[in-house]
Design a protein that fits this description.
This protein has 503 residues and is of the alpha+beta class. It has four domains: 88 residues; 108 residues, 2-Layer Sandwich (TATA-Binding Protein); 145 residues, no CATH class; 108 residues, no CATH class. The protein is 35% helix and 37% strand. Strands 4, 5, 6, 7, 8, 9, 10, 11 and 18 form a nine-stranded antiparallel sheet that branches. A five-stranded antiparallel sheet has the order 1-20-19-3-2. A four-stranded antiparallel sheet has the order 12-13-16-17, with no helix packed on it. A hairpin with a 6-residue loop joins strand 10 and strand 11. Helix 3 packs across helix 6. The longest helix has 30 residues. The protein is elongated.
Amino acid sequence: MFVAEEILKNKTDEISASNSAPFLNRTLDFLSSVKFGVVLLIILVLFSLIGMLIIQQNVNGFDAYYASLTPAEKLVYGSLGLFDIYYSWYFKFLLIVLSLNIVLASIDRFPSAWSFISRPKLDASRKWLLGQKQNAVIEMRGGDGRSIIENIEQVFKNQKFKTRVTEKKGKIFIFAESGKWNRLGAYIVHVALLTLFIGHFCSLQFGFDADVRMMPGQVTNEIQLIEFNLDEQERYAVGLPFTITCTDIQQKLIDPKGSIEIINTLDWRTQIRIDDPEYGATVADVSLNKPFEYRGYRFFQASAITLGSARSMVLELTPQNGGEPLAINLARNGSTNLPDGTIVDYEAFFPDFTFNSEGKPDTRSKDYNNPAVVLNVTAPAGEKSRVYAFAGNVSDKIPVGAPKAGYKWRIKEFEKSPLAHVLSIKYDPLNAAFIAWYIGGFGLIGALCFVFFVSHRRVWALIDQKEENNFEIVLGGNTNRNEQGFEDKFKKLIQNLTADKQG
């Protein structure tokens, strides 16, 4: 009865001491606890899953998804911020608290982890060694103490252990370890996570995302910033410190005879020239898997305006008065000269040619059903005329098909290309996103591999001389992970030591 009362009294004293601790200390203990951090991670993962299941408002196709929801779903999801969950206040708050938890937990536990590296346990009692999960006792006869030590050290080194020999109270201890830096692996993970969090936070705070439509020949010094508000997108222009000129766009197709839709596309390529008053001119190619970076602006290939056009074409000109047909190459927005001095200038390309209600050239659809190019032709004498060249056969009896400037005009072949490309421009003056993705991301992967595939293994050997030329070797060891692998290595150590003893 007395014992029970004493235990209850001690327990009550512990609780009272805990409750009487300063509020700040108890708060810090709670914020730095591993359990609290794990709970935060689980909540963040759940929110991330919600963000994957519910289409976010800055993703293509959100407007159609939003229209398909019921009024109640729109109200609930919108009120909870689930349409923009990664930018919501509570998601950012969780990231901040998790970052604080990581910092506090690292400060609280780092000293003990560092002690394994800076002040390793070099000696151990016989009882402590035999209490380890991996232990053994070997007797060695013959030879002196120096040779015994050298033999044990060599066996350890052969198994990739680093050794240290110490003496205490007349007994010799050999301490061997490998992978000691694994003790700091968790803190490398912490640094990588914090790098990811801080990098993305700075990128969101100081940078922006924008779109710019690029057509060959287009010159602009503005970009369109996008502000999302559920199914509405507001765009406004922002000036750039340089001018962008689109010189060429190209779409590499799987089947050159097929459509220019995404399913038939290998790559998009946009060639631009940047004219900077401070740094001069810079030419760059922006491809699907090859972004371009300039002064903190990163250019990505985002999408294409899939209204059919032509990057280049071969025109077949048949002389009106007879003779061999003439083939000429003409680029989009380009110009060429005929042998007789006639100048041919590109004006426009229409994938499905027609005339609109005002009698102007137009297209019925975005597909190549009736491709035609409009040309401005200047004769040697200076007479100008507009010429229509079709890919199909058009009768000479209709105005658009009649010979002009002395030739019957036809498109012999052409390279398909969209009307325009859309470049996504991400401005990140601090290169925070680069630091987050490449340093934090790859650092996190490397750190996790280091944590899970490397272990800190320690082995102690107590050498106790019983009689002259008769030694007892007590071994014990432990590891912080991969017990099975360490057990196999420990058995191999014993086998090698036993073999040396027999030899």
